[in-house]
């Protein structure tokens, strides 16, 4: 399993060397965009909105737009310094909370934690302590140049870390349009809805649920492959012939013309 981060988790005087691994993966079927004319993949170029020129990576600078069309340029060295200062810190567990106190809207991405060299005993200690107390650790970590708030909790026989959003990253519910504040509901309506919920209630078994759209899409792709309906890209664009013709015409036009010296009229002999 690929390691995305190495560091140390600390709580009190206990330091645990750990490795971070992505606990989830994107299983979406990736579709490519092709040029209908020649079946070649579409490329995307970075261009300047003012000059309309293609921009190379070395000609790009980072900046913050503090007002419309007004920017503060940020030097790469300054950004790297801040990044390095944060990455050098260990993951400090700030405090411990109950899992049910955190609403699911805050959760972002899950990672498995494995012990680093010499950290097995301390890892087991934290795992057992969290499990016995029914608490989870609240910590901060720097991942891919972004500081994240995270929770650390036991999951089966391992520790899992879940990055969570900061409060200012969660949009206000006041901005949600057309939400009814209070609506009168009859007892019969409530009883019927509650009965329906009870009838559809069962233990959560994640393996029962599948991505029906992804399955149907893959079946369609495999069906087309079986019928040999594949298409191949053309090795040469259709305009190659026209390009060669244009080059040949250009050569003809630029070819130096032969200069002919004017004919001399013979001189008449004097009588």
UniProtKB/TrEMBL annotation:
One of its GO terms (biological process) is DNA recombination. SUPFAM superfamilies: SPOC domain-like. Keywords: DNA damage, DNA recombination, DNA repair, DNA-binding. The keyword Cell wall biogenesis/degradation does not apply. Residues 253-271 have a biased composition (Basic residues). GO terms for molecular function: double-stranded DNA binding. Residues 246-271 are annotated as: Disordered. Residues 52-181 form the Ku domain. It holds the Pfam family Ku. With LigD forms a non-homologous end joining (NHEJ) DNA repair enzyme, which repairs dsDNA breaks with reduced fidelity. Binds linear dsDNA with 5'- and 3'- overhangs but not closed circular dsDNA nor ssDNA. Recruits and stimulates the ligase activity of LigD. Belongs to the prokaryotic Ku family. Homodimer. Interacts with LigD. HAMAP family: Prokaryotic_Ku. PANTHER family: NON-HOMOLOGOUS END JOINING PROTEIN KU. This is Non-homologous end joining protein Ku. The lineage of its organism: Bacteria, Bacillati, Bacillota, Clostridia, Peptostreptococcales.
């Amino acid at each position: 399993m690929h390691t995305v981060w190495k560091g140390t988790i600390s709580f009190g005087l206990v330091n645990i060397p750990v490795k971070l691994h992505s606990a989830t993966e994107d299983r979406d079927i990736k579709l490519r965009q092709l040029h209908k004319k020649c079946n070649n993949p579409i490329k995307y170029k970075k261009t300047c909105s003012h000059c309309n020129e293609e921009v190379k990576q070395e000609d790009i600078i980072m900046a913050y737009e503090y007002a419309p069309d007004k920017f503060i340029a940020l030097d790469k060295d300054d950004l790297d310094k801040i990044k390095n200062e944060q990455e050098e810190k260990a993951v400090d567990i700030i405090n411990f909370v109950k899992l049910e106190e955190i609403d699911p809207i805050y959760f972002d991405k899950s990672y498995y934690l494995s012990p680093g060299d010499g950290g097995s005993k301390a890892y087991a200690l934290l795992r057992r302590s969290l499990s016995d107390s029914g608490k989870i650790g609240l910590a901060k970590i720097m991942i891919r140049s972004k500081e994240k708030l995270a929770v650390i909790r036991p999951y089966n026989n391992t520790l899992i870390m879940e990055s969570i959003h900061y409060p200012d990253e969660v949009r206000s519910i006041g901005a949600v349009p057309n939400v009814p504040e209070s609506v009168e509901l009859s007892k019969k309506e409530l009883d019927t809805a509650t009965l329906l919920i009870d009838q559809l209630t069962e233990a959560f078994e994640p393996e029962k649920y599948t991505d029906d759209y992804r399955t149907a899409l893959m079946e369609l792709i495999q069906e087309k492959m079986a019928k040999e309906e594949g298409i191949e890209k053309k090795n040469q664009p259709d305009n190659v012939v026209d390009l060669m013709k244009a080059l040949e015409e250009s050569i003809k036009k630029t070819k130096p013309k032969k200069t002919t010296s004017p004919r001399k009229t013979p001189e008449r002999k004097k009588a």
